[in-house]
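Lab notebook, bench 4. Still working through the backlog of constructs that have no structural model yet. Next entry is a single chain of 233 residues. Request: give me the structure tokens for it.
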Amino acid sequence: MSHNCHDEHASHDHDHGPNGHGGEHDHTDDVTPALQSYIYEEIDFDNITTLNESIPDSGQAIVKKSWQERMNADPELKSDADEQLLMYIPFAGQVKLHSILFRTSNSSSAPQTLRIYINRDDLDFAAASDVSPTQTLQLAQTSSIQEIPVKRALFNMTRSLTLFFEDNWSAGVEDETSIFYIGFKGDHTKLNKEPISVLYEAAANPSDHKPIVGVGKSVGSGIDGSGGPPHGL
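Model written out:
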């Protein structure tokens, strides 16, 4: 399988050394730019759900792939009853999403139309078809990694994403949609989950306050404490 140099080196000769000849090629420069703003540890993997997946938790598994594992053939997410897939992906905090990364294939089973919804944990296929998405993307039919930018202004306060893969490149002929990798880029802000203690006093109950011994109902009515009317009245 041949890929762009951004993903893996092609089969042509790479014989680079300190002076351009001999020795091993340094992959550091290939990986570092790709990992800038890469979101991984901030994903709430345990709560990822995928509807219509042929193998349970395979949707979760492809999101769990690290950047270094992006070209691995397994695990693979495949649709079951038809070509549609619906994924719910929560984050452990708030994300400013910049782009989404995919690896699919150059076959007819590659997804084509992706409808994205922000902060919706209540969608099934029927609702996703009726509700207007936050943004719609068109995916390429390729086995290379494709990074598709989103409209950042719409994804500044992302706590979860719902990805609705509506169809594939088969034009209705192929019932199976296949995806190998999904990743995200953006900025992340942790949510403060520590409980906030609020100290307050309920409305005073008169029975809880006992009168001071030696002081009657007319406290403060007379300077001398006699309880009489104020002087001069």
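Notes after review: The two ends are 106 Å apart (CA to CA). The chain is about 10% helix and 25% strand. Flag for follow-up if needed.
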